[in-house]
Amino acid sequence: MAPDPLDLHHQGAERVIGSYVLDTEDGPALFDCGPSSCRDALVAGLHARGLELTDLRHLLLSHIHLDHAGAAGVLVREHPGLQVYVSEVGAPHLVDPSRLEASARRLYGDLFDDLWGELAPVPKENVHVTGERVVGLECFATPGHASHHVCYLSADGTLYAGDAAGVRIQPHTTVLPPTPPPEFDPEAWLRTLDEIERRSPAQLALIHFGAADDVTRHLAELRRRLGDWVARTETDVTEAEFSESVRSEVGSGLEEYERAMPFWQSYAGLTRYWEKRRGA
C-alpha cells in the first residue's frame, strides 16, 4: 500500500508540502516536518490518524531546507523526547540555525515569516547524525538538489525521497527537478539517481507531493529533464524565458507545481551552477 502523505496545506494550498508518518522498529516516526508555519496543519493531520505529536519518537529529515525541516526546533520544544536525524553537514544548522535563517531572509525578504514561520534551534542532545541504518531503515547520501541530502529506504520498498526524486504533484504526471542555489550539482544528482535505481525501490514517497509507483518512468523523466535544464541555461537565456519554457512542459497542475518549486528559484540555481563552472 502506498504511503499516504499528511498535507500540510502550506499557505492554505493543497498538495504543496507533505509529510509522512511511518512505523519503525522503534515506534512511530515522521519523515520531514515542513516549516513551522504549517505546525497546526501537521498536528491536525496527526490527530486525524489518531496520533498526538508526543506519540512520535523520531523525526527523519531528508535535508535542512525550510520547506522540509523548518519546524524541527518548534516540534522538539513542544515534544522534548523527539529524536531528530539529519546528515552530518546539516546537523550543526539545526543546533544553531542563525546562518540558515539569515541566508533565507536575504532570499525571501519580507515574505520569510509568512512562508516559513519561526526557525527555532534543536537541542544538541536531540540531534543524531545519520548512518547507514536509521531506526531500521537504510539511509544513504543523495546529493544533487543539496549536498546534505539523504534518503531512507524501508523494508517494504518505499523510498522516502525528499527532493532527490524531484517534484511531481500527484495525480499529475510531470516530473521536475528543483534546482535552487547555492548547492545544486547536476553531476552529483545523476550519480544519486544511479544509486536510487540500483536499490530498485517499489515506490517514491515525495514531499511535493504524494507516492509514485511508476518508478522507472518517473526517474527516467527526471534524468532527462535535469539534463535539458542544464543545457538550456548554459547560454544567455533569461529568467522569464526559462520559466515560460518550463510552464509549457507542465501538462497539468501548473499552479501547484509553481507553488511547490518556484521556477525563479530553479533558474537561480542553474545560473549559479554555470557561474561556478565558468569561474573554475
Describe this protein with a few key phrases:
280 residues, six-stranded mixed beta sheet, globular, 39% helix, 12 strands, 11 helices, alpha/beta
Q: Give the overall shape, derived from the CA principal axes.
A: globular
- Helix amount, in percent? 25-40%
Determine Rg (CA atoms, Å).
18 Å
The SSE string, one letter per element, is: EEEHEHHEHHHEEEEEHEEHHHH
> What is the end-to-end distance?
47 Å
Low-confidence stretches: none
Beta strands, count = 12
Given helix and strand content, the structural type is: alpha/beta
Report on this model:
- The protein is α/β, with parallel strands linked by helices.
- Helix content is 39%, strand content 17%.
- It has eleven helices and twelve strands.
- It has helices at residues 39-48, 66-69, 72-78, 91-95, 98-108, 112-116, 186-199, 215-232, 239-249, 254-260, 263-279; strands at 6-7, 18-24, 27-31, 58-60, 83-86, 127-129, 133-134, 137-141, 150-153, 158-162, 203-206, 210-212.
- A six-stranded mixed beta sheet has the order 1-2-3-4-5-6. A six-stranded mixed beta sheet has the order 7-8-9-10-11-12, with no helix packed on it.
- Strand 2 and strand 3 form a beta hairpin.
- Helix 7 packs antiparallel against helix 8 and helix 9 (239-249) crosses helix 11 (263-279).
- The relative contact order is 0.13.
- The mean pLDDT is 96.
Topology:
Layout lengths: L5 E2 L10 E7 L2 E5 L7 H10 L9 E3 L5 H4 L2 H7 L4 E4 L4 H5 L2 H11 L3 H5 L10 E3 L3 E2 L2 E5 L8 E4 L4 E5 L23 H14 L3 E4 L3 E3 L2 H18 L6 H11 L4 H7 L2 H17 L1
Parallel strand pairs: 3-4, 4-5, 5-6, 10-11
Antiparallel strand pairs: 1-2, 2-3, 7-8, 8-9, 9-10, 11-12
Helix pairs in contact: 7-8, 9-11
